[in-house]
Design brief:
By secondary structure, this protein is α+β, with helices and mostly antiparallel strands. The protein has four helices and two strands; from the N terminus they run H-H-H-E-H-E. It folds into two domains: 1-54, no CATH class; 55-86, no CATH class.
């Protein structure tokens, strides 16, 4: 997943009202890059495919959400943990 937050004048009022703990799902760590343009994302995806960059993902069924949270709490994590809703 790529999360690119654009920062343009038309977005300024909305961005200033963001409450990170509430609006971003109680994330414990937020990393962002300011002033990302659509072309930056396109260029990155092209480069990532050429390298190739392969993310490490561990899926958990929703019923094992507590297990995934414990592993996050205990720093037993490599890559991303994803809850499968189906």
């Amino acid at each position: 997943m790529i999360n690119a937050i654009r920062k343009e004048e038309v977005d300024k009022d909305y961005l200033l009202k963001l409450q990170y703990p509430t609006h971003l799902w109680l994330e414990k760590e937020i990393k962002s890059v300011a002033n990302v343009a659509r072309s930056d994302i396109s260029d990155f995806l092209e480069l990532a495919a050429a390298i190739p960059i392969r993310p490490e993902v561990e899926e958990f069924p929703l019923e094992e959400a507590n297990k995934a949270l414990v592993e996050l709490k205990e720093a037993k994590i490599r890559g991303a943990k994803v809850l499968r809703m189906m």
